[in-house]
């Protein structure tokens, strides 16, 4: 059986370009939202396209592939530049909105506090920046205090409320973090409405408002989503991406890496995130390469905007990073690792409970009201507790800082006599943030979970650091502290670094990432000399987290709750079952019989069933697999011919049936080229691992040439997520969540 | 057809334990050196083993899997500790041997210079360390000079010669870097003699001697080899690893990561190296996890030994790492990237030519003499050129250093008036090192290529940095330098950092690694703020290198020259061919016919052909695949029975043939469970990518149930390496290279 002529298949995949309205419809609806793409088929189409290009004669044959490459790199680089600039300007916007909650610049409304005071020499008081009470001329202390808290809370509510209104009215997919959806999309899920220009705009704007409102959320995940929207938007200008879902996904993977790169100022972290979290990367070095470039470009662009005025990428610079550490410190650090694993699992559990409660409650009909209420409560609590009044990123930066007598002490954190107060306040802040974050992550605003997690971990870590330091100062001669320098004025324990360890442990517990996390933390803090303790704490917290809840981290939990067809990269172990137990046996399959069914029969079959393809057999013998779309495209004209001629023709799929053109149509060329068969005795776990590694949509089981059954991706996803009790609890995307 | 009883298969794989001598032979020779393991089969055996364990009743069923895990982690951790300590002590040994070439400690022969002078307060002259002329009381300048050069060269020759003698006499596999072999082994190649305890000992000892001799080689690759030998040695104590080549390879991957971690003091780099260079990692998070732990443990152990007395892991600390960089500097850096790509390809080419010349020449009969000659020449040249007289690592450390008026100037490198002399010397050093390295890498001593490459790149980078600095100082007001601080006393261009960039570019060109390289350089230098320029230079040099020579880096070239069955992770693109063009058609296959061949026929078949397995058909219809070893194991007793009874029996492989025990034996249970079939119309590139992703040994092509052909890993390797002209030029391991 010859391979179909490449030009023919090319026609087919390019059919979207043909102006015939029926064909247009066919191809526009090639994948509807909620379906899964067929990687093998997509790649075959892409292969045919490049073959056609290369087989062109003369200059055209040379230039066409080159144009393709140029277009691809153009999209990658523009996405990098775009997300770098967007990220930078969002930071500026958030800073301005955040500062607006405390006061305004006397000579211009649109200056933030830093810009407003940039003319003042360091050390002098900045008179140009006025708090609201100064600006409005309120002099009574009580009135000042009331005014401040009123403005603080009401602006928070206004920001959060408008973010929620924007999201609800214009782009419902712009809520939440977006990373679960991106993981699902990169795995082959189709969700076009998640990547529209509107979503891009609303998510970016809503994100700035939500972060500025002081809700317990971060900008990291949403920035990845924004980056993917950009890449999608740019890719729509080029035919090669419009026509190939696979090519598009490779771009999206690079865009996601660029998003992480900007979110954390961590270009390497972006690439590693792509490698570890987005499986698309691991398979092709070419894709990793694009991610590398996109990350680097994005970081350069971000550095060019220079939102923090430090001309550095390192966000939370750890001072005295060159300090060495002592062996006894491993004890509190291991403790923090264990604690991070436990608390991380608890946070995931609370978050799931909150999501389920919201869903099963009247609340889900009033998402904006919920956001307003939550932001009011958050603002009120934050205003009362001194550490959480500032932006979470500022809090983290201060917690990571070592005490330095030459610098201003942050709310008395370095006062050795106030140790117990500080520890109490830090633990209180962490506990409140756990509750607030568990509720906030899932509300109708763009929200990332990274920054709150870092903040919680940093509070706890700093508390442990303060306790260790106190212990060491109280008993400097205990044998465990003998490795400390004898001079009491030299610092032995660095509580700031304990905050970094706490943050890594907490992140490990919540996201269950490993290497990319270490790299991100590393680039975030510049604490190169402390890479080992960071690695150890991440390792331990992941171990503990995985031991407590076999959920695979917060993103895997949300993917499962949404019911996306995403294969978790777990090592599945069967108990001796074979593929035969997993497959849908042939009796329960809808099968096309060679040389038996008429064109009209097949049309009826297409109407009756919405499977994405059908196995073709000849008296139980497996001939091949045909996809729904190819079949529909092929029989639509034949159906019309049969209707006019009045003679129904049989459909023939193999050379062995004689094919008289009067009585039969030859559809042999429609069979998929790449179909995997296995024997049904194959172990179940091998079937699962093939789906994981090859991104398959189905595997056919044959035995001695006879069709025995079939397994689809959906079956495997169901198998892998059956342990999680709330699988599919928030079905069919966010829209249903409040409609 | 029921799946065979797990216990039965377990019996089979455990047969190596049975004391029967014939069975023992079978299993000892299950894989001979030079063959390839079958991953699917290995994993199936492992699966059966764990099933048997878990299905045990009572405490045994609980404890056995737990013991397995404990054993595994024990090996991982012990390997980490072992390689960390070994690496640390090797450094100490090398330092002592290297210092011995210049003098000795007056109060103890076994102290190196640093240890000898440790009692002296900084700033004072160290009188305890005596050069040879001081020690021997030579006072005439000329005689001193002659004595020094004589000792320098003759000790170099002695060290290198004894390394070569050790390697040649005791462990021929201990020569070269070892990374190509490890990549091949991790891909499934069997080369047990590469991992023996003798190889471990000789490689470690020889490495110290070779490095101390001042030959142009590094310790990085060989340390990875040593680490793998350790893991192999430790794993032999546990049955689960002895019986499973796949499990062993997973351990080796972790060990390799630990080796890199120790070689560069770069625990994250080790994990990343595993991820990027050793494909085994990408497939299983569990394996990556082990690499993570092994790397961390190894780094902690190394830090505990503290060979450099700095109690830091960062080997070549870049001072003033917090300096920002200016946009115009991208021009020289991009230039360095391009240059690194070109020079890297050139170095690979020269190295290949040198290897071929050695092979086709009388030289290969006198490997020790060659090493002696090369070390004499290297030592003589190095002694004359001031920059290369010290160990390469010391040179690199000095080149990476910024000029600091408070520190001692390294050979006038910071003297602004001697710019041209310095540039000339640096370029000369680099050029000589290229030639020496191209020759040395492949001689009969343990030799890594990382450090020489870094040294070459650092020389060139520093030269470019000096030129740029000179240009900026000469024309400080040119528009391109306007971003520099106006005060001429403030440094604008940091030549030390140019050396780092040069090193990364050169490494990118030679190894074609990307992310792991950036991370390693990063941990090596601590230059966190300069991650972007490093990324960019690595990117560009890889692009340029790949454009010039499609060889995939030095390791891939050596694998191809050796002819190891390793699948390069390239993106293969066909020109429209299908699997039919790649497969060996059924007419040229050796096939077992169901119910036709007698036991004796099969035994004869096993003797006549050395294929690792045979397809089984029933009148052209494909039934399954049977491996050579299973078949041999099964028919050996049957053959004896038939010989005694005198009645030859037929072999039956499917239920459809009636199986009368008098006339036939049922071998149905021997068919492999996991066999992949595809249609022969499947595109060639999909077949290749399946081999790459699933680590297959063969794929069967069927059509309508009939066997059409088969593709094996060897065919795919031949396809992928056909572009490289010297494939298999140094066949069958190192032994043949000189015998």
From TrEMBL, chains A, B:
<feature type="transmembrane region" description="Helical">
    <location>
        <begin position="72"/>
        <end position="94"/>
    </location>
</feature>
<feature type="transmembrane region" description="Helical">
    <location>
        <begin position="489"/>
        <end position="509"/>
    </location>
</feature>
<feature type="transmembrane region" description="Helical">
    <location>
        <begin position="198"/>
        <end position="217"/>
    </location>
</feature>
<keyword id="KW-0406">Ion transport</keyword>
<dbReference type="Pfam" id="PF00571">
    <property type="entry name" value="CBS"/>
</dbReference>
<feature type="domain" description="CBS">
    <location>
        <begin position="583"/>
        <end position="641"/>
    </location>
</feature>
<feature type="transmembrane region" description="Helical">
    <location>
        <begin position="423"/>
        <end position="441"/>
    </location>
</feature>
<dbReference type="InterPro" id="IPR001807">
    <property type="entry name" value="ClC"/>
</dbReference>
<keyword id="KW-0812">Transmembrane</keyword>
<feature type="transmembrane region" description="Helical">
    <location>
        <begin position="515"/>
        <end position="540"/>
    </location>
</feature>
<keyword id="KW-0129">CBS domain</keyword>
<feature type="transmembrane region" description="Helical">
    <location>
        <begin position="251"/>
        <end position="275"/>
    </location>
</feature>
<dbReference type="InterPro" id="IPR014743">
    <property type="entry name" value="Cl-channel_core"/>
</dbReference>
<dbReference type="Pfam" id="PF00654">
    <property type="entry name" value="Voltage_CLC"/>
</dbReference>
<dbReference type="GO" id="GO:0005794">
    <property type="term" value="C:Golgi apparatus"/>
</dbReference>
<dbReference type="GO" id="GO:0005886">
    <property type="term" value="C:plasma membrane"/>
</dbReference>
<feature type="transmembrane region" description="Helical">
    <location>
        <begin position="368"/>
        <end position="386"/>
    </location>
</feature>
<feature type="transmembrane region" description="Helical">
    <location>
        <begin position="146"/>
        <end position="167"/>
    </location>
</feature>
<keyword id="KW-0472">Membrane</keyword>
<dbReference type="InterPro" id="IPR046342">
    <property type="entry name" value="CBS_dom_sf"/>
</dbReference>
<keyword id="KW-0813">Transport</keyword>
<dbReference type="GO" id="GO:0005247">
    <property type="term" value="F:voltage-gated chloride channel activity"/>
</dbReference>
<feature type="transmembrane region" description="Helical">
    <location>
        <begin position="327"/>
        <end position="348"/>
    </location>
</feature>
<dbReference type="GO" id="GO:0005769">
    <property type="term" value="C:early endosome"/>
</dbReference>
<dbReference type="InterPro" id="IPR000644">
    <property type="entry name" value="CBS_dom"/>
</dbReference>
<keyword id="KW-1133">Transmembrane helix</keyword>
<keyword id="KW-0868">Chloride</keyword>
<feature type="transmembrane region" description="Helical">
    <location>
        <begin position="447"/>
        <end position="468"/>
    </location>
</feature>
<comment type="similarity">
    <text>Belongs to the chloride channel (TC 2.A.49) family.</text>
</comment>
<protein>
    <recommendedName>
        <fullName>Chloride channel protein</fullName>
    </recommendedName>
</protein>
């Amino acid at each position: 059986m010859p391979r179909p002529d490449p030009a023919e298949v090319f026609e087919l995949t390019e059919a979207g370009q043909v102006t015939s309205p029926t064909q247009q419809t066919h191809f526009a609806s090639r994948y509807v939202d909620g379906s899964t793409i067929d990687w093998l088929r997509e790649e075959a189409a892409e292969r045919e396209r490049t073959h056609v290009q290369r087989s062109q004669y003369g200059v055209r044959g040379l230039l066409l592939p080159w144009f393709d490459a140029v277009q691809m790199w153009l999209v990658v680089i523009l996405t990098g530049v775009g997300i770098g600039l967007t990220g930078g300007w969002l930071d500026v916007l958030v800073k301005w909105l955040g500062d607006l909650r405390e006061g305004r610049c006397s000579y211009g409304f649109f200056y933030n506090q830093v810009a407003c005071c940039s003319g003042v020499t360091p050390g002098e008081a900045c008179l140009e920046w006025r708090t609201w009470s100064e600006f409005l001329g309120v002099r009574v202390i009580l009135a000042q205090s009331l005014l401040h808290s009123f403005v603080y809370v009401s602006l928070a509510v206004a920001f959060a409320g408008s973010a929620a209104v924007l999201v609800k009215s214009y782009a419902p997919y712009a809520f939440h973090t977006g990373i679960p959806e991106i993981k699902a999309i990169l795995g082959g899920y189709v969700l076009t409405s998640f990547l529209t220009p509107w979503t891009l705009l609303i998510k970016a704007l809503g994100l700035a408002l939500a972060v500025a409102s002081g809700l317990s959320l971060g900008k990291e995940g949403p920035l990845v989503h924004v980056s993917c929207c950009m890449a999608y938007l740019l890719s729509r200008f080029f035919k090669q991406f419009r026509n190939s879902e696979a090519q598009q996904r490779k771009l999206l993977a690079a865009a996601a890496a660029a998003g992480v790169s900007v979110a954390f100022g961590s270009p390497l972290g972006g690439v590693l995130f792509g490698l570890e979290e987005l499986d698309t990367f691991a398979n092709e070095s070419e894709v990793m390469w694009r991610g590398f470039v996109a990350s680097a470009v994005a970081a350069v662009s971000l550095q060019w905007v220079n939102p923090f005025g430090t001309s550095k990428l390192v966000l939370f610079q750890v001072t005295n990073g060159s300090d060495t550490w002592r062996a006894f410190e491993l004890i509190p650090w291991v403790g923090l690792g264990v604690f991070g694993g436990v608390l991380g699992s608890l946070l995931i559990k609370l978050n799931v409970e909150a999501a389920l409660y919201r869903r099963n409650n009247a609340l889900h009909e009033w998402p904006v009201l919920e956001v307003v209420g939550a932001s009011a409560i958050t603002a009120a609590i934050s205003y009362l507790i001194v550490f959480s009044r500032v932006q979470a990123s500022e809090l983290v930066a201060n917690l990571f800082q070592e005490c330095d007598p030459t610098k201003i002490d942050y709310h008395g954190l370095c006062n050795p006599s106030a140790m117990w107060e500080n520890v109490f306040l830090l633990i209180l802040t962490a506990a409140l943030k756990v509750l607030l974050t568990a509720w906030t992550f899932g509300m109708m605003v763009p929200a990332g979970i990274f920054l709150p997690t870092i903040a919680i971990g940093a509070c706890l870590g700093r508390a442990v650091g303060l306790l260790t330091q106190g212990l060491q100062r109280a008993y400097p001669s205990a044998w465990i502290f003998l490795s400390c320098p004898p001079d009491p004025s030299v610092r032995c324990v660095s509580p700031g670094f304990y905050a970094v360890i706490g943050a890594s442990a907490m992140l490990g517990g919540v996201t269950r990432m490993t290497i990319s996390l270490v790299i991100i933390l590393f680039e975030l803090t510049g604490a190169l000399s402390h890479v080992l303790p960071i690695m150890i704490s991440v390792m331990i917290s992941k171990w503990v987290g995985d031991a407590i809840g076999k959920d695979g981290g917060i993103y895997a939990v949300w993917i499962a709750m949404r019911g996306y067809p995403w294969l978790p990269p777990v090592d599945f172990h069967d108990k001796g079952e074979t593929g035969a137990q997993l497959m849908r046996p042939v009796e329960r399959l809808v099968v096309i019989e060679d040389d038996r069914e008429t064109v009209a029969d097949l049309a009826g079959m297409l109407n009756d069933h919405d499977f994405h393809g059908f196995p073709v057999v000849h008296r139980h013998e497996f001939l091949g697999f045909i996809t729904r779309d190819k079949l529909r495209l092929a029989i639509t004209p034949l159906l019309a011919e049969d209707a006019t001629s009045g003679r129904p023709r049989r459909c023939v799929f193999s050379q062995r049936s004689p094919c008289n053109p009067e009585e039969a149509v030859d559809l042999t060329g429609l069979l998929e080229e790449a179909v995997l068969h296995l024997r049904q005795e194959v172990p179940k776990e091998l079937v699962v691992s093939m789906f994981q590694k090859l991104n398959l949509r189905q595997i056919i089981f044959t035995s001695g040439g006879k069709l025995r059954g079939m397994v689809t991706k959906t079956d495997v996803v169901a198998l892998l997520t059956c342990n999680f009790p709330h699988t599919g609890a928030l079905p069919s995307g966010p829209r249903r969540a409040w409609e």
